[in-house]
Amino acid sequence: MTAKLLELDHVSHRYGDYSVVRDISLSLARGTIACLLGPSGCGKTTLLRGIAGFEPVSSGEIRVNGTVVSTPSYTLPPEQRRIGMVFQDFALFPHLNCARNIAFGLHHLARTERRRRVDEMLEMTGLTAAAKLYPAELSGGQQQRVALARALAPNPELLLLDEPFSNLDLELRERLCTEVRDILKLNNATAVIVTHDQHEAFAIADEVGIIASGALQQWSTPYDLYHEPANRFVADFIGQGTLLPGQVRNATQVEVELGVLDGKFNDAPGAAVDVLLRPDDIVHDDDSPRLAQVVTKAFRGAHFLYTLKLPSGQHVLSLVPSHHDHPVGSQIGIRLRVEHVVTFPR
């Protein structure tokens, strides 16, 4: 069994009578990268600060590597938790060059060992040539890597990153997500990242926790969150899709306007449900007798995202290869290709 590096057991945090974090339980295995994902104000940053020791818990317990670090009556100081932190604004020391920023938390090491560790982190993050440059002389991406190297240098048990890419432009964010994941995996680091951007979460995390109104809605892999959302909030928040009215025929079939879908259903035969259809569940097929009208289309490079109106007036989304360029108002053939059938009670 893989050892649990981080454990949260029914953790809540309140300001007076207002609950910011509500009864959250989760665990994280060593070497796993996790992400707390949710809209602004949902409580994810407060939860991260609680793990770091900057906020107390109102109820529940937080354990790091089996050691209790937070209860309502006890909070181990942040500096004693062996937790590294990368802040949203990087918080680099402007008067220290790149190498000295990385060395900041290594004063307990002998000089030669400290220099060896700094050189190791510089090489790992691709910053060797920038070792003597100051933060003001570095690009946003370089500053991000310095902050990451500084946090990893003392070999923390756990690394926390608070919206680490939010101040960077889109292209740089996408590239750095991959770079940061590679660096964390190379270090076998255990990390928790907070973001409101699902693309970042999916690019970097092994496991993702969806938080809304202070509560954990679902904790799973990015794949399962997309294909098997636990509730309507997760279905709506993750990816794109539409809910099409359907009716359960039996324990293994549900019928919608576009046909009969096979799956496993707990609802009674005849029950009215809403069926989640993702854009990749609706396939463009010129030979299909089922037609839908193009309402809008968005060019995505390799694909168009079509909004289609069915004969009933219901709308669905379809991701279509971009060489199928149909004008708005035209009728196109479609068919269902649904491998994960998800339903919610009407």
Helix and strand run: EEEHEEEEHHHEHEHEEHHEEEEEEEEEE
Shape descriptor: globular
Provide the low-confidence segments as ranges: none
Q: For the CA atoms, what is the radius of gyration?
A: 24 Å
Count of helical segments? 8
Instruction: Give the number of DSSP strands.
Output: 21
Helical fraction equals: 10-25%
Instruction: Specify the biggest β-sheet.
Output: 6 strands, mixed
Query: Structural class, from secondary structure content?
Result: alpha+beta
Oligomer: single chain
Query: How do the strands of the widest beta sheet line up side by side?
Result: 7-8-9-3-10-11
For the termini, the CA-CA separation is: 40 Å
Relative strand content: 35-45%
Tell me, rounded to a whole number, the average pLDDT. Answer: 93
List keywords for this structure.
single chain, 346 residues, alpha+beta, six-stranded mixed β-sheet, five-stranded antiparallel β-sheet, 8 helices, 21 strands, 37% strand, globular
Provide a compact summary of the structure:
The chain has 346 residues and is an alpha+beta fold.
Structure description:
With 346 residues, the chain is of the alpha+beta class. The chain has helices at 44-52, 98-103, 111-124, 140-152, 170-186, 198-204, 222-227, 232-237; strands spanning 4-15, 18-29, 33-37, 59-64, 67-71, 74-75, 83-86, 158-162, 191-195, 207-212, 215-220, 242-250, 253-256, 259-262, 272-277, 282-284, 291-299, 303-309, 315-321, 331-336, 342-345. Strand 13 and strand 14 form a beta hairpin. The protein has eight helices and 21 strands. The strands form four sheets. It has a six-stranded mixed sheet with strand order 7-8-9-3-10-11, with helices on both faces. It has a five-stranded antiparallel sheet with strand order 2-1-4-5-6, with helices on one face. Strands 14-13-12-15-21 form a five-stranded antiparallel sheet. Helix 4 packs parallel to helix 5 and helix 5 (170-186) runs parallel beside helix 6 (198-204). The mean pLDDT is 93. The longest helix is centred in the middle third of the chain and has 17 residues, at 170-186.
